[in-house]
Design a protein that fits this description.
Protein name: Xanthine dehydrogenase family protein molybdopterin-binding subunit
Radius of gyration: 28 Å
Pfam families: Ald_Xan_dh_C (PF01315), MoCoBD_1 (PF02738), MoCoBD_2 (PF20256)
Structural class: alpha+beta
Number of strands: 30
Largest sheet: 7 strands, mixed
Shape: globular
Mean pLDDT: 95
Distance between the termini: 92 Å
Helix content: 25-40%
Strand content: 15-25%
Strand order of the largest sheet: 4-8-2-15-12-13-14
Length: about 800
């Protein structure tokens, strides 16, 4: 009988049942391994900096050596005359009237024109046949600067005679800021903080400083632009948001978006630093000018100037509490330095303001958050996005209040902890689990690590266990232990009315006698493990073991940015949604072919499992191979989460966020109080993740975020000279990040309290642990030393007073 005869494939006699062994493996809830993991740890993974094209040129960017100056003249003649140089471009060579770009406000010049506004701003481009030739040629470009007064802080930015960083502003924020050098301002007023302060038995105030942190991704900015025969360009690049890049690149090139074809190349970390453009437009301009492929790879020095950083901040807080430990009110003012260009500063301000209260019940608040324009390096997105700076300050305040009241710092926090139903200061209810008190309980009851473990080892003691580590400066004298706690709240997804959606294309077909699913999105895989989760979702929804993830590009609809802890929620939601619709199409085919063979086709709830169509009771109705035969089901669909709304510009009220996430930390440190050296012994964390789609990846994200918070607590800071606004430490020699020797044990306690509004009940995971790890470490150091310590990072001189 022919193979395609339905009788041969329809169940006959007693229906069969799917066995445990034939169920689809590798679905959600399992710790499936990353498809790129082995390649990365063996050094075989191809990053964007590894790309190569025959006959390609190398691009180089010449950057300003001063922070604020008029450009009187640019002479490129010597550079052009250099053998091996194919092109030198300045502002005057840009092909269209669109000269600027930006995520929200298009205030960033492709190449500086008339003036430079920060140290390291791009001024000219060179393409040559060798990277060193391009660098030497760029060094021959002569630029005449006339330096201008610097704007470096709030006082200089808002002085009556202040120079304007951007003259003639026309963006939509200018109408509600008190000075043109204030980029954006967001107040939040709820209740009456002044009246509530009269009920307080204790009031504490604090001024806090948060340093400028770098994302410090290990893979530098890089990409390859290849001119196309149709006059367009192919761009292979490491980025966080392909379609946002496309929207900014195409107008500058004077090309329709369909002629700028972008493909994601291997990304060596991001953390917000690749959300803005870096070399994308520059490589495309050089490729289109020369007619040759052009590769640009920043070295580490260039990378420090090639992307935005975390906003440094000055924060003033006031809290009150009754004698029995209940918070009465909060007032705060948060000043973020956005640097020379807007980047994501408006959204960072919104986050800082709306999350400034922390995960606590407070009905009477008076909040102001703002971002400055200055001549300091531009700042924008970084993991935690405004909530990190606020958490550092409000958690220090909680410790101060607890000390004033003579209360245990954890019990004080638990007494005031929000829960499901609590109103945020914006008036938005927290409509999913908020287990703040439980997270704190879990980190507190965890057994403490043994104290001064090196004492018991005697002469065999490992100096790496001591403050100072391999520098061998500490031998136990003056070493004191400290323990500190902190908890934080972070939003998930884009907020304030942004149309936050994603797109997924899913195809199911039979290949080589097996059902195969292909998932195609534009999601940027930057190390978070999205490609693993998308395959898990497809296996779960479609019951197929063989899932292929296509490379991300702009030939499919936007997936939004890989930021804001949103990709598993939003693009994962799009993959789930599209898979569900593919499944229905497959079942329609099955009903059409086999509906007459078994009544369950019409009456039962059907699912796909183990490559078969089965009922909820486990009866097998057909193999997917027989259902599909030569047909393919191919759908591309968009998916959106619940809408949000903008915060009121006067009161700050509004349902601005789609979801909240929570994490708590306990830090254990040992401090050499004589030398000012700190050893973090343990950073325990408890976090509610809603549903762990891949438990191993979830733990990795939590530990990674915790480590970045540790870095800004004790070592990470970009130092900007206040007299020149120049970066003083643009290298990993002078900008320190935690290594394996600095990173302590990080035990993770995962809660799974589902958010019913989210796919599978999940919560975004990656950012929340970055918030509370920093103040927990600071609290532990304060506990050990008795010092106030109101700035990050803590340096030895802050502990010794030298």
């Amino acid at each position: 009988m022919p193979q395609n005869t339905p009788v041969a494939t329809a169940p006959a006699g007693t229906p069969t049942s799917i066995s445990q062994g034939s169920r689809t493996k590798g679905g959600i809830g399992e710790s499936t391994l990353r498809p790129d993991g082995t390649l990365k740890v063996t050094g075989e993974f191809a990053y964007s900096s590894d790309m190569w094209h025959e006959d390609m040129l190398w691009g180089h960017t010449l950057r300003s050596t001063v922070a604020h100056a008029e450009i009187k003249s640019i002479d490129v003649s010597e550079a052009l005359a250099t053998p091996g140089v194919y092109a030198v471009l300045t502002y005057d060579d840009l092909p269209t009237e669109v000269k600027n770009y930006g995520l929200e406000i298009q205030d960033t010049p492709v190449l500086a024109h008339g003036k430079v506004r920060h140290h390291g701003e791009p001024v000219a481009l060179v393409a040559a046949d060798h990277p060193e030739t391009a660098r030497r040629a760029a060094a021959k470009i002569k630029i005449e600067y006339v330096e201008l007064p610097l704007i470096t802080d709030e006082a200089s930015a808002t002085a009556p005679d202040a120079v304007l960083v951007h003259e003639g502003r026309a963006d939509h924020h200018i109408g509600h800021v008190p000075h043109p050098n204030i980029l954006h301002r967001q107040p939040i007023v709820r209740g009456n903080a002044d009246e509530a302060a009269e009920r307080a038995d204790v009031i504490v105030k604090g001024d806090y400083t948060f340093g400028m942190q770098d994302q410090a991704f290990l893979g530098p900015e890089s990409g390859l632009a290849v001119p196309s025969e149709d006059g367009g360009v192919e761009l292979y690049v490491a980025t966080q948001w392909l379609h946002s890049d496309l929207r900014q690149i195409a107008p500058v090139l004077g090309l329709p978006e369909e002629k700028v074809r972008m493909t994601l190349s291997g990304v060596g970390g991001a953390f917000g630093g690749r959300e803005d453009l870096s070399m994308q437009i520059h490589a495309c301009l050089l490729a289109l000018r020369t007619g040759k492929p052009v590769k640009i790879v920043y070295n580490r020095f260039e990378s420090f100037f090639g992307h935005v950083h975390r906003h440094p901040a000055k924060l003033h807080y006031e809290h009150g509490a009754t004698r029995d430990g209940k918070l009465t009110h909060m007032k705060c003012r948060i000043v973020l330095d956005g640097g020379a260009y807007a980047s994501a500063s408006p959204a960072v301000v919104g986050n800082a303001a709306s999350l400034s209260v922390g995960p606590y019940v407070l009905d009477d608040v008076d909040i102001e958050a703002l971002a400055l324009y200055s001549n300091n390096p531009p700042c924008g997105a970084m993991r935690g996005f405004g909530a990190v700076q606020a958490c550092f300050a409000y958690e220090a305040q909680m410790d101060k209040l607890a000390a004033e009241l003579g209360m245990d710092p954890v019990e004080f926090r638990q007494l005031n902890a929000m829960e499901q139903g609590t109103l945020m200061p914006t008036g938005q209810p927290v409509d999913s689990p908020a287990p703040v008190a439980e997270l704190l309980r879990r980190v507190k009851v965890r057994p403490l690590p043994p104290e001064q473990q090196w004492l018991a080892a005697g002469e065999e003691a490992d100096v790496r266990a001591l403050p100072g580590g391999l520098s061998n400066t500490t031998h136990g004298e003056g070493v004191v232990r400290g323990v500190g706690y902190a908890v934080g709240i972070k939003n998930v997804g884009f907020s304030e009315g942004f149309d936050d959606y994603s797109t997924a294309r899913v195809r199911m077909e039979v290949v080589g006698g097996e059902p195969v699913v292909t998932v195609h999105t534009a999601m940027a895989e930057v190390g978070q493990g999205g490609v693993t989760v998308h395959a898990q979702i497809a296996r779960t929804e479609l019951g197929v073991a063989q899932v292929t993830i296509r490379p991300a590009d702009t030939q499919v609809g936007s997936a939004g940015s890989t930021s804001a802890s949103r990709q598993t929620y939003v693009t994962g939601g799009a993959v789930k949604h599209t898979c569900e619709n593919v499944r229905e199409k497959v079942l329609e085919i099955g009903r059409r072919k086999f509906g007459s063979y078994h009544p369950a086709w019409a009456t039962a709830e059907l699912r796909l499992e183990g490559g078969k169509v089965v009922t909820d009771g486990g009866e097998v109705l057909a193999d997917l191979v027989d259902v599909l035969e030569s047909e393919a089901v191919d759908l591309e669909l968009e998916w959106r989460h619940r809408p949000t709304e903008a915060f009121d510009l006067v009161t700050g009220q509004g349902n601005g966020h789609v979801q909240y996430s929570f994490a708590a930390h306990r830090a254990v440190v040992e401090v050499d109080t004589e030398l000012g050296l700190v050893k973090v012994i343990e950073l325990a964390v408890a976090q509610d993740v809603g549903k762990a789609l891949n438990p191993l990846s979830v733990v990795g994200q939590i530990q990674g975020g915790t480590t970045q918070g540790l870095g800004v607590a004790v070592m990470e800071e970009i130092i900007v000279d206040p007299k020149t606004a120049k970066v003083r430490n643009p290298s990993f020699t002078d900008y320190l990040i935690p290594t394996i020797l600095d990173t302590p044990t990080i035990p993770v306690d995962v809660l799974e309290l589902a958010d019913d509004h989210a796919p599978y009940g999940l919560r975004g995971v990656g950012e929340a642990p970055t918030l509370s790890s920093t103040p927990a470490v600071l609290a532990a150091i304060r506990n050990a030393t008795g010092l106030e310590l109101n700035r990050t990072p803590v340096r030895p001189e802050h502990l010794t007073g030298t």
